[in-house]
């Protein structure tokens, strides 16, 4: 699955939400994606539109123009049956340092983070 977005919004540690890390965006066609994790949980929660799944063992790759989220086949329902979601960044407004910190917090101990920055 592939989506385009102008902006990724990231919160590495939300004090008001028990230190939850959150990454989210709205695509150019109206899709909503949210990835969250509380620091004491062993899973990452992913929501894409109306589909929700708690996932483990995911891999996320970040570059200046792309975010690739890969899940195991048993978690592919969250992406409409695809085992990955590729997000193309269509502008330079995203704070990539904050996105990177957020992804590291989300994936620590639960997945793999690959930086192409």
Description:
The protein is mainly beta. It has one domain (2-115). 10% of the residues lie in helices and 46% in strands. It is built from 1 helix and 10 strands. The strands form 2 sheets. The chain has a 5-stranded mixed β-sheet, covered by helices on one side. A 5-stranded antiparallel β-sheet has the order 2-3-4-5-6. A hairpin with a 6-residue loop joins strand 4 (32-37) and strand 5 (44-48). The longest helix is centred in the C-terminal third of the chain and has 12 residues, at 96-107. The chain is globular and about 35 Å long. The two termini are 22 Å apart.
Radius of gyration: 13 Å
The count of strands amounts to 10
Main sheet attributes: strand count, strand direction, barrel closure: 5 strands, mixed
Q: Main sheet: which strands, in order across?
A: 1-9-8-7-10
Task: Name the beta content range.
Answer: over 45%
As residue ranges, the low-confidence spans are none
Distance between the amino and carboxyl termini = 22 Å
Number of domains: 1
- How many separate helices? 1
Q: Based on CA inertia axes, which overall geometry fits?
A: globular
- Quickly give the structural class: mainly beta
> Mean pLDDT score, rounded?
94
**Share of helix, binned:** 10-25%
Order of helices and strands: EEEEEEEEEHE
Task: Looking at this protein, list some descriptive labels.
10 strands, five-stranded antiparallel beta sheet, mainly beta, 117 residues, five-stranded mixed beta sheet, 10% helix
């Amino acid at each position: 699955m592939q989506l385009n977005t102008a902006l990724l919004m990231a919160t590495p540690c939300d004090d008001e939400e028990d230190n939850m890390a959150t990454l989210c965006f709205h695509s150019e066609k109206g899709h909503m994606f949210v990835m969250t994790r509380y620091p004491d949980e062993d899973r990452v929660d992913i929501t894409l539109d109306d589909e929700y799944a708690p996932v483990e063992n995911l891999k996320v790759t970040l570059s200046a123009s792309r975010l690739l989220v890969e899940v195991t086949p048993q978690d592919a329902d969250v992406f409409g049956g695809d085992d990955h979601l590729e997000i193309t960044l269509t502008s330079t407004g995203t704070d990539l340092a904050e996105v990177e910190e957020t992804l590291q917090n989300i994936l620590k101990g639960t997945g793999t983070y690959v930086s192409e920055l």
